[in-house]
Predict the 3D structure of the following.
Amino acid sequence: MPKRLMYSALLCLLLVAALPPAAKAQSSDGGRPDQIVLTPPERNQSLRSATGTDYLSPSTEAPHAFTHMLLRWQASVPEGASMQLEVRASADGSTWTHWTAVEENDDLWMPDDGPNTTWSQTIDAGFAARFWQVRGSFTSAPSGALPELKRVDVNTVDVTTFAPRQTTAATPRAQPNGLLAKPDVVSRAAWGCPDGEGSRVRPAYYPVNHMVVHHTADSNTLLDGEPNWAARVRAEWSFHTFTRGWGDVGYNYLIDPNGVIYEGRAGGDDAVAFHDTANYGSMGVVLIGTYNAVQPTAATQNSLVALLSWKASQKRIDPLGRSYYYGCAISTYCYPYNRGAIVLNIAGHRNVMPGQTTCPGDQTIDILPNIRNRVKQALDGTPADNGDLEIDELETSFARSNANWYDATCGAGGHTYYTFGTDNPAESTNSATWRPNVPAADTYRVFAHIPQGCGLGTAPYATQKAVYKIHSADGDFQRTVDQNTADEWVDLGLYHFGAGTDGAVELSDMTGDPFSARKVVFFDSVKWVPESDSTNVALVNVAYDKDTV
């Protein structure tokens, strides 16, 4: 399966093979897709042109009109070779959409498919099309070997045939015993599931103790413009239910770029979905869109935090922890890469299957530490950033890594986090970021709070080499601080910051101290104080290591 990371675009087709009568007779009515299978004319040939370097398929008419497409293909790609595949659609076979490259979707792959089978993401035609066409290019390996494409299944469905009259989110019921409320969720019936709140397959159940985040890795549409997200949810249900053969949508919940949450697989709490080859004991949540180069929208992130917080509250899940994931123990694509089947409680798909997928995209992985912290703060009832430019370690503008953290009651506001300095990343990798929402571009003096008198050891027990990294509008700067100082608010210097959240202060426990010395590293409050006085301009971005002679 490592070949799945060797190419990210899709399809290349040649000759249309005759389908069995039952397949040809399939109708898109009721959400069942049509399917056309493309194979080469001879058993041992490949789907590519005579030159082997490019291909343009014939214009192919689908059995019924369609709004969405899904492809599955079988190919072997030699090391160093690649395939680039694209698709377009038309209502009349004459006027076409633009060509769009379509990425693979690892969420649909299962071990039984074998290493040479790849699934595409859902492709939105943007309108009711009737014809489709594909083209592909092939790049040979240094040895001259070319990819061998043996079969492509093209699946199409018209989701307008089972669209609801109106899509609305149900008001959640109050939760007992002080648990966090479930956020608004569009029910299956409301987004137009033909099976309503039920399912054509009997749900399996296993207690949820993990939450796994995905992205659908799809381009928005073959036409420019915002797609109908509820329609995309119906397409996901159709392809997962019939084409993939799961009998229902593979995710427990789906979240669109507007932050709307859709109910996925039927069965309610603890229903086992199909999303990471493990599944038993996890709730799968997919963010609709591709998040390799761009972050999920703020609305999507807010809804993800609300959904994960509700489930973490309901199931007593530590959002910053790791624990035994039963599904991992039975998955050959999880257990060998996660010792003892210990997995992050809030994980990205690639955390469950390291090296086997890029899901949920680099940008989603980058924000997951902050998502986990926001869930933790929601469970603790801690406040969001109140806009005073003092970022407390319990506010949402403070993000910390998933590692071993300790608490003390001696910091600003009566609380601080701390860890221990190290010179070996294998021993500890704690880090944190304070990120203010600066109201206006200006010059600000930055201060870090260093708790004193905490009684965490024989003085001096804190590190003398805490390296604060200041990300300002003028670049990145460092200030090394002795955290044994008696001055609890340490001046980190004067810097320019632009308006917004681009500026930040970072700190890690990589101090250069041997971990065995147990030198405390405090992660407490950081504050920004505006200094607009022109007499200070000459001192901007200047910090002194010593202030006495």
